[in-house]
Amino acid sequence: MRIGAIEAGGTKIVCGIGNEQGIIEDRVSFPTEQPDKTIRKMVEYFQGKQVDAIGIGSFGPINIDRSSPEYGYVTTTPKPGWSNYPFLPTLQREFDIPFGWDTDVNAAAFGEATWGAARGLDSCLYYTIGTGIGVGVYAEGKLVHGLLHPEGGHILTRRHPDDSYEGFCPYHGDCLEGMAAGPAIERRWKAKGSELPQDHPAWAMEAFYIGQAVAGSILLLSPKKVILGGGVMHQSQLFPMIREEVRRNLNGYVSAEAILESAIDDYIVPPSLGDNAGLCGSLALGLKALQ
Ligand SMILES: Nc1ncnc2c1ncn2[C@@H]1O[C@H](COP(=O)(O)OP(=O)(O)OP(=O)(O)O)[C@@H](O)[C@H]1O
Ligand SMILES: [Zn+2]
After folding, report:
1. Which of 143, 153, 214, 251 pairs with 124 at a CA distance of 20 to 30 A?
2. 14, 7 in Cβ contact below 8 A?
3. Which residue lies with its CA nearest to atom 14 of ligand 1?
4. What is the largest CA-CA distance in the chain?
5. Exposure of 43 by Cβ count < 10 A (0-12 exposed, 13-18 middle, 19+ buried)?
6. What interface predicted TM-score (ipTM) does this complex get?
7. Which DSSP symbol is given to 31?
8. What CA–CA distance (Å, rounded) separates 98 from 84?
9. Which listed ligand is nearest to 184 at the C-alpha?
10. DSSP letters spanning 4-26
11. Which UniProt key words apply to this protein (predicted)?
12. Cα separations (Å) of 214 from 94, 150, 242, 282?
């Protein structure tokens, strides 16, 4: 079987082809530009490749309500040209095959549950901490959509006592994304995260915010695995610091074995599909659309 996958990010698009084992056989990537031009490149890539289905994990917010006339649209993004754009319907006019469609983070959560760190489990959370923060929610064997779709990157956080940075989220100022996404690190410390040394105080502050959010989501959703991906999480020293913050926040209240000091290294983890997490997630959505 040949399944197409589209990982549509705010800065770049990755298109690929893979199989039912989650093996990516081919991939290309190009920048996210005006939608008509960008979609044309996707169509050109898949033309003649004889894929049986295509899965799309898209930047949001997007409409994933199958009963809506605007199912498959990108909705209120500030990205030029993409606001209220019929992303999925435009592709469906070109290819008469089943399509899977979900948020980029739900796709990544689903990919990790199908072939990666949460394989065999019926729940997991996938955080991406990059230019923005997004959270994919897989619970009781299903991706969670709800009213629109979860927007866990924008939950409110308690401020670090030594932090005077106001936060960059245009909606909330100091929500999680406003305080902990890549641009917040850069604006607070006047240097890119990738340029800060591993022992810089930025990382303790970063772990403070992410740890709080993860502890909150453990209380709310009780996931069986928490996966932390995205550019900022390339700073691997953050993992032990975040685990420690999660334990400090929960303070023994959640008595699951996974949260014990001896087990938490296997509970809060990087994506095991690595930088393929997004594309494999879209592949998994495409495969599901065939069933
Ligand atoms: N090694 C690193 N250490 C710290 N920060 C990093 C590192 N690499 C990238 N970043 C930060 O991560 C952000 C980019 O995130 P990412 O690589 O996940 O891409 P993205 O697709 O633009 O993000 P998003 O998924 O939010 O759209 C930038 O703010 C960048 O400064
Ligand atoms: Zn916000």
Report:
1. 251
2. yes
3. 130
4. 58
5. middle
6. 0.96
7. E
8. 22
9. 1
10. EEEEE-SSEEEEEEE-TTS-EEE
11. ATP-binding, Carbohydrate metabolism, Kinase, Magnesium, Metal-binding, Nucleotide-binding, Transferase, Zinc
12. 41, 14, 9, 24
Map tokens 């006592």 to a residue: 161
| CA–CA distance, 146 with 168 (Å, rounded to integer) | 27
Q: Which atom of ligand 1 is nearest to the CA of 183?
A: 29
- Six-digit token pair at 150? 């979860």
- Phi, psi for residue 100 in degrees, rounded to 5: -105, 145
Q: Tell me, using a 6 A CB cutoff, whether residue 35 lines ligand 1.
A: no
**In this structure, which ligand is nearest to the CA of 179?**
2
Check if 34 has its Cβ closer than 6 Å to any atom of ligand 1: no
Q: Ligand 1: which residue has its CA nearest to atom 2?
A: 194
Question: Mind listing the domains of the chain with CATH numbers?
Answer: 3-107+275-290 (3.30.420.40), 119-270 (3.30.420.40)
Both tokens of residue 255? 């008595």
Residue 218 tokens read as 């453990």
Q: Is the beta carbon of 187 within 6 A of some atom in ligand 1?
A: no
Q: Is 173 left (phi over 0), alpha (psi -120 to 50) or beta?
A: left
Q: Structure tokens of 225?
A: 């695995």
Each residue's pLDDT expressed in tens, for the chain with a length of 291 residues: 999 999 999 899 999 999 999 999 999 999 999 999 999 999 999 999 999 999 999 998 999 999 999 999 999 988 899 999 999 999 999 999 999 999 999 999 999 999 999 999 999 999 999 999 999 999 999 999 999 999 999 999 999 999 999 999 999 999 999 999 999 999 999 999 999 999 999 999 999 999 999 999 999 999 999 999 999 999 999 999 999 999 999 999 999 999 999 999 999 999 999 878 899 999 999 999 999
In whole angstroms, how far apart are CA 74 and each of 58, 89, 148? Answer: 8, 11, 12
